[in-house]
Specification:
This protein is mainly alpha-helical. It is built from 29 helices and 2 strands.
Length: 624
């Protein structure tokens, strides 16, 4: 069968990807057009590029087959049909006026095309989920095909709903920002900065992995991408300095996963959260700040205690970059992040902040000779193309999630599910939180973070709010477990990625990752019971909650990794530390006092009940 030559296909992909990025930059500058036009074009670009980049059958020669060519044309037509018929769409009365034949043809085609493109981009889980909800709507929900099509295609309550709006308005720009920052050389800056800061300390390479991944995560937003970018350097370095491969891979996986939770630039789901909550993205970043810092404090202290327990030393200072030289040579590359934060603080929108950040990247590289020649015309084109390519998975997942949300809204399934959760938990908040945690992890295993979060918002968050959880805490709670599924066995994508570099046994790496990231599973319960950790409340309460929570996560890290500040922790000392961590979770001065007493007992045991010979840390380097 005739097909398009590979060279032509590659040039077409580049041209369309660059055009997609330029279109979104232009819209961010002049303001968004009609909702159907903006979201329709965004979806059309995503579908067309998806079918071009991910052919139905692997073609060795890279040619575009006839079938995929037809899918490309059909995708463009179906996605743009509403925006090309705006007068008709805006004047009809949805749910009252029956869809015409063209609506059925293009709407049905778009649903099938989204399912197929999402399957190619993310696997079967999300399309199957959407199909199950579609079947539920027609059967149990007793909705006609016409009403379903109306909801999903001819309104902004389905495919063209909030998830796709967020993808088109915010996510695309921040991913594009990340592509430009990455090409500016900031990745090397993050790595050298972390090496200069912590490389010489006990277990320094693991701390470098934590710092680097938290920094890179602010511009990446993807756990797997973070692992594959920073892990290629940090995992071998950890292994060379004495960490066993499984632990090295686990450190990188856990540290990379937290990037989606770390302000100033979190994962795509955070922008969706801002829309659902009806607040600015800056507010969401503020809510997420302390929990994210607690997450990284816990991981940092865990690798510190592990290194002290087995006697690992850092990299010799002579082999490390000097902090002053790193900042003088490349420190200016931090400026685009500063620009975004500064613009957000002025009250401008997240989209405008991202645009300012992108606009600042190239001029920033001109400030030092070492980076002045970074952005050639070819590099700019590559950054624009990479930004569009990296957006595809999010855009397609958001469109597919829109199908699910449309059905839930139309059938009232969310209210029914809330009743089920309340009945199962018997109005017990702890049990409801535990059920929500399990559901979030299971959804996150099969779905990308954003659709997993969106489905939970529709099905689970209302039940938590009904049981008295503050709405902001409820949203962040379900987001955490959608994210943490990346390190939760049996489907732990960040662990798989890290394991590909460390070559360790998968089960060993998974167990080490759960142990390292266990504090991350507890932090959501902490801010549900103490919303002051979301920077809500008076300053004194926030300060007290911050201090006790920080002490708690450090105790938990010590208890899990068999070491505390004065030496190796014996079994009863580990139990005291874990108990102290758990009681410090509960807000209130009584529980805080109990936690402090337990810590004091642990330190006293280490100081006075330990034989002098065993108090010394092991010498030399050993296998972790």
């Amino acid at each position: 069968m005739p097909s398009v030559p590979s060279g032509v296909t590659r040039r077409l992909i580049t041209a369309l990807a660059v055009l997609m990025s330029v279109f979104h930059l232009w819209v961010a500058f002049v303001g968004p057009p009609n909702a159907y036009v903006m979201r329709g074009l965004h979806l059309a670009f995503a579908l067309v590029l998806g079918f071009l980049i991910m052919p139905g059958r692997a073609r060795v020669d890279g040619r575009l087959g006839v079938w995929d060519g037809l899918l490309v044309l059909a995708a463009a037509a179906a996605a743009l049909y509403p925006s090309l018929n705006l007068t008709y769409i805006e004047n009809r009365m949805y749910y009252v006026d029956d869809p015409v034949l063209a609506d059925y043809v293009f709407g049905g085609a778009l649903i099938l095309l989204i399912l197929e493109a999402t399957r190619r981009a993310t696997g079967w889980a999300l399309p199957i989920t959407a199909l199950v909800f579609l079947a539920y709507g027609v059967t149990v929900g007793q909705q006609s095909v016409g009403i379903m099509l109306d909801q999903l295609y001819l309104t902004t309550e389905g495919i063209f709903g909030i998830p796709l709006y967020v993808s088109a308005t915010y996510v695309m720009l921040f991913i594009l920002f990340g592509a430009f920052v990455e090409r500016s050389g900031a990745g090397k800056l993050f790595m050298d900065f972390a090496l200069a800061l912590a490389g010489h300390t006990s277990g320094g390479p693991a701390k470098v992995a934590v710092i680097t991944s938290s920094l890179f995560g602010t511009v990446s937003g993807s756990a797997v991408a973070n692992v594959m970018t920073t892990g290629t350097f940090t995992i071998p370095l950890m292994m060379r300095t004495g960490y066993r491969p499984a632990f090295a891979g686990a450190v990188e996986a856990v540290a990379s996963t937290g990037g989606q939770l770390m302000p100033p630039i979190m994962g795509a789901a955070a922008f969706v959260m801002a829309e659902f909550l009806g607040v600015s993205y800056l507010k969401v970043a503020m809510f997420a700040l302390l929990p994210a810092l607690l997450y990284y404090v816990a991981v940092f202290m865990a690798v510190h205690f592990e290194a002290k327990r087995i006697g690992l030393v850092g990299v010799p200072k002579a082999d490390l970059p000097r902090l002053k030289e790193v900042l003088l040579e490349r420190g200016h590359l931090f400026l685009p992040l500063v620009v975004i934060i500064a613009v957000l603080l002025t009250g401008r929108s997240a989209a405008f902040s991202a645009l300012c950040g992108i606009a600042s990247v190239i001029p920033t590289t001109w400030l030092r000779p070492s980076t002045r020649g970074t952005f050639t015309f070819t590099a700019i084109v590559e950054a624009l193309e990479a930004g569009a390519r990296n957006t595809l998975v999010v855009a397609l997942a958001c469109a597919c999630a829109g199908i699910v949300i449309g059905v839930i809204t139309l059938t009232g399934l969310g209210l029914s599910f809330t009743g089920v959760v309340l009945a199962l938990s018997q109005n017990s908040l702890i049990l409801a939180l535990f059920l929500t945690m399990l559901a979030g992890i299971l959804l996150g295993m099969g779905l990308p973070t954003t659709p997993a979060y969106i489905v939970q918002v529709a099905l689970l968050v209302p039940a938590l709010v009904k049981l008295g959880v503050q709405v902001e805490a409820a949203h962040l709670f379900v987001l955490y477990f959608a994210v943490l599924s990346a390190i939760t066995p049996p489907v732990a994508m960040a662990v798989y990625a890290a394991n590909g570099i460390s070559r360790a046994t998968l089960m060993d790496t998974s167990w080490a990752a759960v142990k390292l990231g266990l504090t991350g599973y507890i932090i959501p319960f902490m801010f549900v019971f103490a919303p002051s950790l979301l920077l809500m409340g008076d300053p004194a309460t926030v300060a007290l909650a911050t201090v006790t929570a920080t002490v708690g996560v450090v105790c938990l890290a010590g208890g899990l990794h068999q070491y505390f500040f004065l030496g190796t922790a014996r079994p009863w000392e580990r139990l005291l530390l874990i108990a102290a961590a758990l009681v410090l979770i509960k807000p209130g001065w009584q529980s805080d006092l109990v936690g402090l007493v337990l810590i004091a007992l642990t330190l006293a045991s280490q100081r006075w009940l330990r034989p002098r010979a065993s108090a010394a840390a092991p010498e030399g380097r050993k296998s972790a």
